[in-house]
Specification:
Elements (H helix, E strand, L loop, with lengths): L1 H33 L4 H9 L22 E6 L4 E6 L3 E5 L2 E6 L2 E9 L6 H15 L4 E10 L2 E11 L11 E11 L2 E10 L5 H10 L1 E2 L1
Antiparallel strand pairs: 1-2, 2-10, 3-4, 4-5, 5-9, 6-7, 7-8, 8-9
Length: about 210
């Protein structure tokens, strides 16, 4: 009889210990769920937030001089030519090319397409992709334009520049991107400078100079 009572007591104690352990585990899990994120996790979350447009410069440096000389550039691999400001740093990558001078730039990139682009396709594809991958991009307009070399589609937008590697400063940029099409290829000519810079005549000269070879 005594042995039976002792066995029952041991079983009761064992059950109580199991229940207590389960409750303690549950409280610990609930506590970790409610625990605030660590500073490192908060920083990672913040880094994924949407970038905000920076304020335009009051007196932007970026005017291309009226007496700027231009030279012809021909891409045999890309099958096109255009004029670019003389003396700007040039980088080529296959069919693509970029000319840079401080915060101003000119670039041409070539992609394949079975059909010619139109305003709707540019808005749906290139513009939407740019807003997702670019820096605080704001599309200002998309329209058909007639140039000396033929017709093209012009997309106008603003964006932030890449951060300065030393000061981390960014500048608000004005961008004009022209889309030219021929024989399954789209040439995307991008011109950019700080917002407020006066480059109307020079940009017209460059965009009108583009020719397929």
């Amino acid at each position: 009889m005594f042995n039976q009572q002792k066995t029952r007591i041991i079983l009761v104690i064992a059950v109580m210990l199991i229940v207590a352990g389960f409750v303690g585990c549950s409280k610990k899990k609930a506590s970790s769920k409610n625990r605030p994120a660590s500073p490192k996790m908060q920083q990672q979350t913040a880094s994924k937030s949407v970038e905000k447009p920076v304020a335009p410069e009051k007196n932007p440096i970026g005017d291309i001089p009226d007496n700027q000389a231009f030279v012809k550039y021909t891409s045999l691999q890309g099958g096109y030519e255009l004029v670019a400001p003389e003396g700007w740093a040039r980088t080529t990558n296959g069919m693509n090319v970029t000319f840079i001078d401080k915060l101003d730039g000119v670039s041409v990139s070539i992609t394949s397409s079975a059909t010619a682009p139109n305003i709707r396709s540019i808005r749906t594809n290139q513009a939407e992709k740019l807003k997702k991958t670019g820096r605080a991009v704001v599309i200002k307009g998309i329209k058909d334009v007639k140039l000396k070399g033929g017709t093209a589609i012009l997309m106008m937008y603003e964006s932030n520049s890449e951060p300065n590697p030393v000061t981390n400063k960014q500048v608000r940029l004005e961008n004009n991107t022209y889309f030219y099409y021929k024989s399954g290829k789209i040439a995307e000519l991008r011109l950019w400078a700080p917002v407020g810079a006066d480059n109307v005549d020079q940009w017209n000269k460059i965009s009108n100079s583009f020719r397929w070879k």
